[in-house]
Amino acid sequence: MPNKADVKAWKAQLVAQAEQQILKLTDSDQFKKYLNTLAKFHRYSARNIDLIYAQNPQATQVAGFKQWQKAFNRTVNRGAKAIRIAAPIIKKLTPAEQKHLDTTDERAIVGYRYLPVFDVAQTSGEPVLSAKDFVKENLADHQNVTSLYNAFKDYLNQQTDLKVSEVPLETLNGAKGYFQPSTNEIVIGGDEPDNALKLKTLYHEYAHSQLHGLKSAFKDRPRAYQETQAEAIAYVAMQNIGVDTSNYSLGYVATWAKDKAVIHSALSEIQQVSNKVIELSDGLTKQLGLQEAQKEPEHNLKNLSAQELNKSYQGLQQQVQQTTNSQQKAQFKNQLHEIHEEISERTQKQLKAFSEQNPAIKQPEHNAAKTLKR
Predict the structure, then answer these.
(1) Longest dimension (CA), the chain
(2) Rounded to whole angstroms, what are the CA distances from 190 to 125, 127, 159, 196, 198?
(3) pLDDT over 70, % of the chain
(4) CA quadruple 100, 104, 107, 113: dihedral positive or negative?
């Protein structure tokens, strides 16, 4: 049994390992791998993203041993090595402790413990649905990317203090767009033929507006630092909606100073703005009908309980009423039909079984015929 000193040393080594992995993020390929991890774990704390990446850069979705069993009907493979993440230890404070800490809060974080989680690749069982399962495969086509670009531009113009406008590319001296802090304005090359690049440029300049505006605490970052941050956020945002932008450069990441505090600060800032952009994009793609209904695979319909079937049916009915996209509406209706068929089949089987078990109360055929004629 390890003593307290051994446990403390192991925890310190775990964090140091994460820091060393971050310090290696000075070539674009490694940085892309990190950003892919960030896109997948954007709801985790920056500290836990670091820990996950350091221990398993290929991880895509992690959960605890029991959570895989209960929530996903999957089991952790024998011999799988756990990934450790930090969880806060929260304690109820005594009046003396509140006075000592100069706080009126009843509870406070008094430390952290390291919990084991496992990546989906370390498990076996039923398929796991991910966000990309609900994003249309044709999101990258002209019409849908243009729709998302216009929706995001309209949102910024109407719901924020930013102004987004378009100008001919020939007036931008080789750039695709820019952010002007003095006027809080984003300018985009409106005649850019690559629709994915145009959307990514808007994400890029929006990131500048959030991190490097006149009122931002980070407005005085070096130019190369700012460009790398903005490009990283744009990359994460495009990865989130399933559009491959791997052919676009992330910029010269090696311009970052090899200082732990600076790197942690930069990654934390990227994470915060990436979260915001991802939430905005998810909301807009839902409004535009560019996300698939969250349904179980067809072959699993028979495994669902009656309550789960009814819940899916009601959710799809609501989607049919809300969507204005005719193609999406047709897809929802097809899914409704499949669930309706399954419910109907189950109902018929139940009625038949009930009828066979209770022949005395079976309704005579002539009465049924009379009822139908009315």
Answers:
(1) 89
(2) 48, 42, 21, 13, 8
(3) 72
(4) negative
Q: Of the candidates 77, 83, 90, 92, which has an alpha carbon nearest to the alpha carbon of residue 60?
A: 83
Distances in whole angstroms, Cα of residue 109 to Cα of each of 7, 58, 88: 19, 31, 6
Q: What is the pTM of this model?
A: 0.65
Do residues 233 and 270 make contact, with C-beta atoms less than 8 angstroms apart?
A: yes
Chain position carrying tokens 């990258």:
140
Q: What secondary structure, in 3-state letters, does the chain show?
A: CCCHHHHHHHHHHHHHHHHHHHHCCCCHHHHHHHHHHHHHCCCCCHHHHHHHHHHCCCCCCEECHHHHHHHHCEEECCCCCCEEEEEEEEEECCHHHHHHHCCCCCEEEEEEEEEEEEEHHHEEECCCCCHHHHECHHHHCHHHHHHHHHHHHHHHHHHCCCEEEEECHHHCCCCCEEEECCCCEEEEECCCCCHHHHHHHHHHHHHHHHHCCCCCCCCCCCHHHHHHHHHHHHHHHHHHCCCCCCCCCCCCHHHCCCCHHHHHHHHHHHHHHHHHHHHHHHHHHHHCCCECCCCCCHHHHHHCCHHHHHHHHHHHHHHHHHCCCHHHHHHHHHHHHHHHHHHHHHHHHHHHHHHHHCHHHCCCHHHHHHHHHC
Closest by alpha carbon to 245, among 256, 258, 234, 253?
A: 234
Query: With a cut of 50, which residues of the chain have pLDDT below it?
Result: 249, 251-255, 293-299, 362-374
